[in-house]
Amino acid sequence: MRSAAASGAASIAAVAPRLGGSPAWRRIGRRPPVVAGAAILALLLLAAALAPLIAPHDPIEQSLGPGLTPPGRAFVLGLDSLGRDVASRIVYGSRISLLVGSIAVSIALTGGLLLGVLSGFYRGLADTLLMRVTDAVFSFPPVLLAMALMAALGANIRNVMIALGIVYTPRYIRLVRVGVLAASEQEYVAAARAAGAGDGRLLLRHVLPNILGPVVVQTSFSFGEAIIAEAALSFLGIGTQPPTPSWGLILSDAREYLAQAAWYPATVGGVLFLVVLAINLVGDGLRDALDPRSA
Question: What global pTM score does this model have?
Answer without folding.
Answer: 0.83
